[in-house]
Design brief:
mainly alpha; 118 residues
């Protein structure tokens, strides 16, 4: 562990005093990926399972077209996609051209119920 810390500090010092654009970009990308990984594993908050939204809407899927069901499956594929959809479509009241307006309202209503868990 001590050697790893020394290696990290040496790399940071080298990049600080001898910047190289490609190496610096690679370093920043890897650091960001590592931090996101630590955040994902160390997060203690209760999180939404994305398919929960699909399960809640299963009773209403009779009013959805095949295209709308496929779009709903894409939206509920991961929590990140649900969160993105919520903030870009539901919060801004922007239209999703795939969904009929009533079906979009149903989807947004269900996502809003779980907004605190996103």
């Amino acid at each position: 562990m001590k050697h790893l810390l020394i290696l990290i500090v040496a790399a940071a010092l080298y990049l600080h005093f001898y910047p190289n654009e490609e190496v610096t970009q690679f370093y920043n990308e890897q650091k960001q990926a590592l931090l996101e990984g630590f955040t994902e594993f160390s997060d203690t908050k209760v999180r939404l399972k994305a398919d929960k939204i699909y399960q809640d809407l299963e009773g209403d899927l009779g009013s959805f077209s095949e295209r709308e069901v496929e779009r709903l499956k894409v939206i509920t594929s991961s929590r990140v996609v649900v969160k993105e959809y919520y903030f870009t479509i539901c919060k801004t009241e922007q239209r999703d051209i795939v969904f009929h307006i009533k079906n979009q309202e149903k989807v947004c209503r269900v996502i809003t119920r779980y907004a605190s868990m996103l």
